[in-house]
Design brief:
The complex is a heterodimer of chains A (309) and B (178). Chain A has 14 helices and seven strands. Chain A is mostly helical and 309 residues long. In chain A, the strands form three sheets. In chain A, strands 4-3-5 form a three-stranded antiparallel beta sheet. The longest helix of chain A has 20 residues. Chain A is rod-shaped. Chain B has 178 residues and is mainly alpha-helical. Chain B contains seven helices and two strands; from the N terminus they run ααββααααα. In chain B, helix 4 crosses helix 7. Classes of the chains: A mainly alpha (309), B mainly alpha (178).
């Protein structure tokens, strides 16, 4: 601690206990007298400061003996206090609140993880659909539906994709069940062409069940919905060919050939359409109704038809 | 347009004010800048403050001024993210989601450095730019942006920023990633 002589009484006093009045040290005993004459001596508020002892810490008042302390913002501060200023701790309530909220966010993240998983699965489903991989698409939609059962649209999507998969695998009856389920799901209007796929599945299911009148009715309904679709016209030809095969009625044969010619013109050089055409012509030639699999087994290199449309 | 007094907004979004001041303090501690007083929240103007010594390097001044922008933006994303998918994508919110959204957006809304922060940064940048400090030169347009952002608060720019940083951008990133 440093001492200084008071300019009024000349007594030594600790610097920290004096005031600087117009740059002169005045001890606490004399200061009242000096300030009482402030007006006469021309002393203003700006002329009075508390003197700072460079050897005493402003914050904790620790005495550093004769050695001066380093200054922080113009004030002498000991090493401990300086460290406290430079590394001011966060209050406990703030730390606890932060940990609590972070825990809540982590918990919420875990709790809502299934939504993130479902989002990912729906994206994967869309990618699989672009590749026409209906089985994978259906599996992803199933997983999304399991993760978020609150959204019945996912179950609808899963049923729709299963329906498309069954249709692609010639399992028409199964496809009908799935597609009917998809159609009954909420927002089924957002499923692309669900009515058309269902109609197509019902038509094929009727063929599989050998209900050829129903097959013809469904195929005609399909044309009504998609007049420009060559496969629908070919399906009508197929239905007439089935009816000819069963009854031998020439009228059905002529209708089959007429529709087949129309379908051929619409399809152009589509290889699938050509294969389907051969199968129908075989049916007209022989009055034997073969499934696609059986036809492909018997005629792996194609069929040379006798009947000409 | 609805004009709501600033203190009411600060009151409703008080976690953002606390995080803003805590972010200033974090960078003061990081750069060993002495802090003399901290007020995390109060009803008044400003609604919070940190009084610190004048840093001896411009990098410290810069970090202390823009610290809340970094920390508040990060925490806004962190707290909004768990609620993002169920609320935005599936419309399946729960009370915890609503709480996290309020918390996240409140924090995001206070990400902009204040005009006081910008003023201090401007003064420090002028001194540092005289010594050709590249960060100081880059700070001038940033300070202008901070002033503009603060002016646009009247048009809810702070809320829009919180919403964008908490929801729109993470949603876009999520959709690209998945």
């Amino acid at each position: 601690m440093k001492q200084v002589a008071c300019t009024e009484c000349q007594q030594l006093a600790p610097i920290g206990e004096t005031l600087l009045v117009k740059q002169q040290h005045v001890c606490s005993s004399c200061v009242e007298g000096v300030l009482a004459q402030a007006a006469e001596k021309g002393i203003t508020k700006n002329d009075v400061f508390r003197a700072s002892d460079p050897t005493v810490c402003t914050q904790c008042k620790a005495d550093n003996g004769a050695e001066e302390l380093p200054h922080l913002a113009g004030m002498p501060v000991c090493a401990t206090c300086e460290d406290r200023f430079r590394n001011r701790p966060y209050p406990t309530w703030l730390k606890l609140a932060f940990i609590g909220l972070l825990t809540l966010a982590v918990f919420s993240f875990g709790w809502n993880w299934r939504f993130l998983a479902a989002t990912r699965e729906i994206h994967q489903m869309q990618r699989a659909l672009l590749k026409q991989d209906f089985e994978r698409a259906a599996n992803f939609a199933d997983q999304a539906s399991r993760h978020v059962p609150e959204i019945p649209e996912f179950a609808g999507m899963a049923a729709f994709n299963h329906g498309l998969d069954a249709l692609a695998k010639d399992q028409a009856a199964q496809a009908v069940d799935y597609l009917r389920k998809a159609k009954q799901s909420p927002n089924s209007g957002q499923l692309p062409e669900v009515d058309l796929f269902l109609l197509r599945a019902e038509a094929i299911a009727a063929f599989d069940a050998k209900q050829y009148d129903d097959y013809l009715a469904k195929a005609k309904a399909l044309i009504g919905r998609t007049p420009g679709d060559s496969s629908a016209v070919a399906m009508v030809a197929s239905a007439y060919a089935c009816k000819y095969a069963v009854t031998g009625n020439e009228e059905f044969r002529n209708e089959a050939l007429k529709n087949l010619e129309r379908a051929a013109k619409m399809a152009g050089k589509d290889p699938d359409a050509a294969n389907y055409r051969e199968r129908i012509l075989y049916r007209i030639d022989t009055r034997e109704i073969l499934t696609r699999k059986e036809f492909e087994r018997r005629f792996p290199h194609g069929y040379q038809p006798k009947a000409k449309p | 347009m609805i004009i709501i007094p600033g203190f009411l907004i600060a009151l409703v979004t008080f976690p953002g004010v606390i995080v803003h001041e805590a972010a200033h303090l974090f960078f003061c501690k990081l750069r060993r800048v002495a802090v003399f007083d901290v007020c995390y929240f109060r009803i008044g103007n400003p609604s919070g403050y940190v009084i610190h010594e004048v840093p001896d390097s411009f990098t410290s001044s810069f970090l202390i001024a823009v610290g809340p922008f970094i920390i508040n933006s990060f925490l806004c994303v962190l707290f909004c993210f768990p609620a993002l998918v169920p609320v935005r994508m599936f419309n399946q919110p729960d009370p915890l989601c609503y709480f996290l959204i309020w918390l996240g957006i409140s924090i995001g809304m206070h990400a902009f450095p204040s005009t006081q922060d910008a003023k201090v940064l401007w003064q420090q940048a002028k001194k540092a730019a005289a010594k050709f400090n590249p960060l100081a030169l880059l700070s001038f347009p940033l300070v202008i942006l901070i002033y503009i952002a603060n002016l646009l608060r009247i048009l809810w720019a702070d809320y829009l920023y919180g919403f964008a940083i908490g929801f729109v951008i993470p949603e876009m990133i999520l959709n690209r990633m998945l």
